[in-house]
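Revision sheet: C-alpha coordinates.
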Amino acid sequence: MYHFFTEPGFLTETEAVIMGTDVNHIRHVLRMKPGEQVVISDGRGMNRLCELTEIGEQQVRARVLPEEIADTELPVNVTLFQGLPKGDKMELIVQKCVELGVSCIVPLACSRCVVRLDQKKEEAKRRRWSGISESAAKQSKRTIVPEIAPAVSFEEAVEQLKGYDLTLIPYEDSERLPGAGGMRLTRELLSGLLPGQSCAVLIGPEGGFSDGEVELAISGGARPVTLGKRILRTETAGLFILSAIGLMTEE
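Predicted:
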Protein backbone atom coordinates (compact mmCIF):
# COMPACT_ATOMS: atom_id res chain seq x y z
CA MET A 1 0.00 0.00 0.00
CA TYR A 2 1.38 3.41 -0.95
CA HIS A 3 2.22 5.90 1.78
CA PHE A 4 2.10 9.69 1.38
CA PHE A 5 2.74 12.67 3.63
CA THR A 6 0.72 15.85 3.73
CA GLU A 7 1.02 19.13 5.59
CA PRO A 8 -0.25 19.35 9.19
CA GLY A 9 -3.83 20.57 9.02
CA PHE A 10 -4.49 18.85 5.70
CA LEU A 11 -5.24 15.57 7.50
CA THR A 12 -8.29 15.57 9.76
CA GLU A 13 -10.38 12.83 11.30
CA THR A 14 -12.57 12.70 8.18
CA GLU A 15 -10.61 13.97 5.18
CA ALA A 16 -7.09 14.28 3.76
CA VAL A 17 -5.68 16.54 1.05
CA ILE A 18 -2.39 15.91 -0.75
CA MET A 19 -0.65 18.70 -2.66
CA GLY A 20 2.76 19.25 -4.22
CA THR A 21 4.92 16.77 -6.15
CA ASP A 22 3.00 13.72 -4.88
CA VAL A 23 -0.02 14.80 -6.94
CA ASN A 24 1.87 14.29 -10.19
CA HIS A 25 3.28 11.01 -8.87
CA ILE A 26 -0.19 9.72 -8.02
CA ARG A 27 -1.74 10.86 -11.33
CA HIS A 28 0.92 10.14 -13.92
CA VAL A 29 3.38 7.65 -12.41
CA LEU A 30 1.22 5.39 -10.26
CA ARG A 31 -1.92 6.13 -12.32
CA MET A 32 -4.10 5.69 -9.26
CA LYS A 33 -7.88 5.96 -9.40
CA PRO A 34 -10.58 7.05 -6.95
CA GLY A 35 -11.48 4.17 -4.68
CA GLU A 36 -7.89 3.00 -4.13
CA GLN A 37 -6.60 2.93 -0.56
CA VAL A 38 -3.43 4.64 0.69
CA VAL A 39 -1.84 5.54 4.01
CA ILE A 40 -1.54 9.29 4.63
CA SER A 41 0.47 10.87 7.46
CA ASP A 42 0.85 14.49 8.52
CA GLY A 43 4.53 14.07 9.40
CA ARG A 44 3.86 14.70 13.09
CA GLY A 45 2.52 11.35 14.18
CA MET A 46 -1.01 11.28 12.75
CA ASN A 47 -1.34 8.26 10.47
CA ARG A 48 -4.57 7.28 8.68
CA LEU A 49 -5.85 4.72 6.18
CA CYS A 50 -7.64 6.65 3.43
CA GLU A 51 -9.63 6.05 0.24
CA LEU A 52 -8.94 8.34 -2.69
CA THR A 53 -12.03 10.31 -3.73
CA GLU A 54 -10.76 12.98 -6.14
CA ILE A 55 -7.55 13.16 -8.19
CA GLY A 56 -7.12 16.63 -9.68
CA GLU A 57 -4.32 18.56 -11.34
CA GLN A 58 -3.36 20.47 -8.20
CA GLN A 59 -4.52 18.25 -5.35
CA VAL A 60 -5.68 14.80 -4.37
CA ARG A 61 -8.51 14.36 -1.86
CA ALA A 62 -9.32 11.29 0.21
CA ARG A 63 -11.70 10.25 2.94
CA VAL A 64 -10.38 8.80 6.17
CA LEU A 65 -11.42 5.20 6.82
CA PRO A 66 -12.23 3.90 10.32
CA GLU A 67 -9.62 1.14 10.33
CA GLU A 68 -6.71 1.68 12.72
CA ILE A 69 -3.13 1.90 11.44
CA ALA A 70 -0.37 0.28 13.49
CA ASP A 71 2.03 2.66 15.26
CA THR A 72 5.44 2.26 13.62
CA GLU A 73 7.42 4.66 15.83
CA LEU A 74 9.99 3.71 18.45
CA PRO A 75 8.66 3.96 22.02
CA VAL A 76 11.42 6.48 22.80
CA ASN A 77 12.43 9.65 20.95
CA VAL A 78 16.02 9.44 19.73
CA THR A 79 17.98 12.47 18.54
CA LEU A 80 21.23 11.75 16.74
CA PHE A 81 23.93 14.41 16.96
CA GLN A 82 26.04 13.26 14.00
CA GLY A 83 29.58 14.53 13.52
CA LEU A 84 29.79 15.83 9.95
CA PRO A 85 31.35 13.10 7.78
CA LYS A 86 33.20 13.37 4.50
CA GLY A 87 31.67 12.88 1.05
CA ASP A 88 28.11 11.66 0.77
CA LYS A 89 28.16 9.51 3.93
CA MET A 90 25.57 11.77 5.58
CA GLU A 91 23.04 10.72 2.96
CA LEU A 92 23.46 7.07 3.95
CA ILE A 93 23.31 7.97 7.64
CA VAL A 94 20.06 9.92 7.19
CA GLN A 95 18.41 7.21 5.12
CA LYS A 96 19.25 4.29 7.39
CA CYS A 97 18.72 6.10 10.69
CA VAL A 98 15.27 7.21 9.56
CA GLU A 99 14.46 3.60 8.65
CA LEU A 100 15.61 2.54 12.14
CA GLY A 101 13.39 5.06 13.92
CA VAL A 102 15.42 8.20 14.69
CA SER A 103 13.29 11.22 15.62
CA CYS A 104 15.72 14.00 14.68
CA ILE A 105 19.23 14.29 13.22
CA VAL A 106 21.44 17.23 14.17
CA PRO A 107 24.61 17.73 12.07
CA LEU A 108 27.45 18.28 14.54
CA ALA A 109 30.55 20.37 13.83
CA CYS A 110 33.42 18.84 15.81
CA SER A 111 37.06 19.87 16.10
CA ARG A 112 38.16 16.91 13.97
CA CYS A 113 35.55 17.34 11.24
CA VAL A 114 37.09 17.67 7.80
CA VAL A 115 33.84 19.08 6.39
CA ARG A 116 33.00 22.73 7.12
CA LEU A 117 29.60 24.02 6.05
CA ASP A 118 29.04 27.67 5.25
CA GLN A 119 25.47 28.97 5.34
CA LYS A 120 24.84 28.51 1.61
CA LYS A 121 26.20 24.95 1.56
CA GLU A 122 24.32 24.04 4.73
CA GLU A 123 20.96 25.14 3.33
CA ALA A 124 21.48 23.10 0.15
CA LYS A 125 22.66 20.06 2.11
CA ARG A 126 19.73 20.26 4.52
CA ARG A 127 17.25 20.36 1.64
CA ARG A 128 18.89 17.28 0.17
CA TRP A 129 18.99 15.44 3.51
CA SER A 130 15.38 16.41 4.32
CA GLY A 131 14.26 14.93 1.00
CA ILE A 132 16.09 11.70 1.83
CA SER A 133 14.45 11.69 5.27
CA GLU A 134 10.97 12.00 3.76
CA SER A 135 11.64 9.28 1.20
CA ALA A 136 12.98 6.91 3.87
CA ALA A 137 10.02 7.70 6.15
CA LYS A 138 7.61 6.76 3.36
CA GLN A 139 9.47 3.54 2.59
CA SER A 140 9.58 2.43 6.23
CA LYS A 141 5.95 3.44 6.98
CA ARG A 142 6.91 6.05 9.56
CA THR A 143 4.23 8.36 10.94
CA ILE A 144 6.66 11.28 11.15
CA VAL A 145 9.29 12.73 8.85
CA PRO A 146 12.35 13.09 11.10
CA GLU A 147 13.70 16.63 11.12
CA ILE A 148 17.18 17.41 9.85
CA ALA A 149 18.04 20.27 12.19
CA PRO A 150 20.51 23.11 11.51
CA ALA A 151 24.15 22.24 12.19
CA VAL A 152 25.44 23.11 15.65
CA SER A 153 28.84 23.41 17.28
CA PHE A 154 29.85 20.88 19.91
CA GLU A 155 29.37 23.49 22.62
CA GLU A 156 25.85 24.25 21.37
CA ALA A 157 25.03 20.53 21.31
CA VAL A 158 26.11 20.11 24.94
CA GLU A 159 23.78 22.97 25.92
CA GLN A 160 20.90 21.12 24.26
CA LEU A 161 21.56 17.90 26.17
CA LYS A 162 19.84 19.20 29.29
CA GLY A 163 16.42 18.37 27.86
CA TYR A 164 17.04 14.63 27.39
CA ASP A 165 16.38 11.75 29.78
CA LEU A 166 19.54 9.95 28.64
CA THR A 167 22.55 11.08 26.62
CA LEU A 168 25.12 8.63 25.28
CA ILE A 169 28.50 9.34 23.76
CA PRO A 170 30.01 6.18 22.24
CA TYR A 171 33.77 6.51 22.65
CA GLU A 172 36.51 4.03 21.80
CA ASP A 173 38.41 4.77 25.03
CA SER A 174 35.35 4.81 27.29
CA GLU A 175 36.70 1.97 29.44
CA ARG A 176 39.47 4.15 30.82
CA LEU A 177 36.94 6.72 32.09
CA PRO A 178 35.29 6.70 35.55
CA GLY A 179 32.09 4.66 35.65
CA ALA A 180 33.08 2.34 32.81
CA GLY A 181 31.11 -0.88 32.59
CA GLY A 182 31.65 -2.37 29.14
CA MET A 183 28.78 -3.66 27.07
CA ARG A 184 26.92 -4.58 30.25
CA LEU A 185 26.58 -0.88 31.07
CA THR A 186 25.52 -0.08 27.49
CA ARG A 187 22.78 -2.72 27.69
CA GLU A 188 21.62 -1.49 31.11
CA LEU A 189 21.33 2.11 29.97
CA LEU A 190 19.44 1.25 26.79
CA SER A 191 17.12 -1.28 28.42
CA GLY A 192 16.33 1.28 31.13
CA LEU A 193 14.70 3.65 28.64
CA LEU A 194 10.95 3.89 29.22
CA PRO A 195 8.21 4.63 26.66
CA GLY A 196 7.90 8.35 26.09
CA GLN A 197 11.42 9.16 27.25
CA SER A 198 14.04 10.87 25.11
CA CYS A 199 17.59 9.86 24.29
CA ALA A 200 20.38 11.85 22.65
CA VAL A 201 23.33 10.12 20.98
CA LEU A 202 26.57 11.91 20.10
CA ILE A 203 28.50 10.34 17.22
CA GLY A 204 31.94 11.60 16.26
CA PRO A 205 33.27 12.23 12.73
CA GLU A 206 35.93 10.08 11.02
CA GLY A 207 38.63 11.34 13.37
CA GLY A 208 36.52 10.75 16.47
CA PHE A 209 35.98 13.12 19.37
CA SER A 210 38.83 15.00 21.01
CA ASP A 211 39.48 14.36 24.71
CA GLY A 212 38.25 17.88 25.43
CA GLU A 213 34.94 17.24 23.67
CA VAL A 214 34.39 14.03 25.60
CA GLU A 215 35.10 15.81 28.88
CA LEU A 216 32.72 18.62 27.93
CA ALA A 217 29.97 16.14 27.02
CA ILE A 218 30.40 14.28 30.31
CA SER A 219 30.19 17.57 32.22
CA GLY A 220 26.90 18.15 30.39
CA GLY A 221 25.47 14.82 31.57
CA ALA A 222 26.47 12.45 28.75
CA ARG A 223 27.32 8.87 29.61
CA PRO A 224 30.38 7.50 27.76
CA VAL A 225 29.71 3.97 26.50
CA THR A 226 31.36 1.29 24.42
CA LEU A 227 29.80 -0.27 21.32
CA GLY A 228 31.93 -3.40 21.57
CA LYS A 229 35.49 -4.45 20.87
CA ARG A 230 35.50 -3.32 17.25
CA ILE A 231 36.05 0.24 16.06
CA LEU A 232 33.01 1.34 14.05
CA ARG A 233 33.00 3.88 11.25
CA THR A 234 31.07 7.10 11.83
CA GLU A 235 28.35 5.94 9.42
CA THR A 236 27.96 2.67 11.34
CA ALA A 237 27.93 3.78 14.98
CA GLY A 238 24.55 5.53 14.90
CA LEU A 239 22.98 2.57 13.14
CA PHE A 240 24.32 0.28 15.88
CA ILE A 241 22.81 2.40 18.66
CA LEU A 242 19.42 2.77 16.97
CA SER A 243 19.24 -0.96 16.27
CA ALA A 244 20.07 -1.68 19.91
CA ILE A 245 17.44 0.80 21.16
CA GLY A 246 14.83 -0.83 18.94
CA LEU A 247 15.77 -4.28 20.21
CA MET A 248 15.71 -3.19 23.88
CA THR A 249 12.55 -1.07 23.86
CA GLU A 250 10.11 -2.35 21.23
CA GLU A 251 7.56 -5.03 22.03
